[in-house]
Amino acid sequence: MKAFLIVGSSVLEEDIKALLEEVGVDGYTQWSLVKGMGGRGLHLGTPIWPSLNEVFLVVVNEELSEAFLNGLREMRDKKEVREEGLEVFFWEVERLR
To answer: What's the pLDDT tens digit per position in 23-49?
Structure first.
């Protein structure tokens, strides 16, 4: 299995959810209205730095992982997504049985 940590501007929330549905991911964890600082500057939800992020943790089996990774790559290649900011980290995981 692979775990994906996806951090993106709140503007991208629906795009990320659409990809999850398109690929067939049936579960994820989402943190909304996340503050932080990264390559696109501060995201604090204030009048000076108004943007915020969404964070998704998605764990998928090997069968879905390649399709999901390809979809995330395609998403990141879009100009409007690059301007908003989308970071993806992934690693191999195991479930405690």
So the answer is: 999 999 999 999 988 877 778 888 888
Whose tokens are 């730095």? That residue is 49
37-41, 47-51, 70-74, 80-84: range with lowest mean pLDDT = 37-41
Name, in order, each residue with C-beta under 8 angstroms of 1's C-beta and a sequence gap of 6 or more: 59, 60, 61, 62, 65, 92, 93, 94, 95
Q: Contacts by 38-45 with C-beta closer than 8 Å and gap 24+?
A: 38/7, 38/85, 38/87, 39/85, 39/87, 40/9, 40/84, 40/85, 43/9
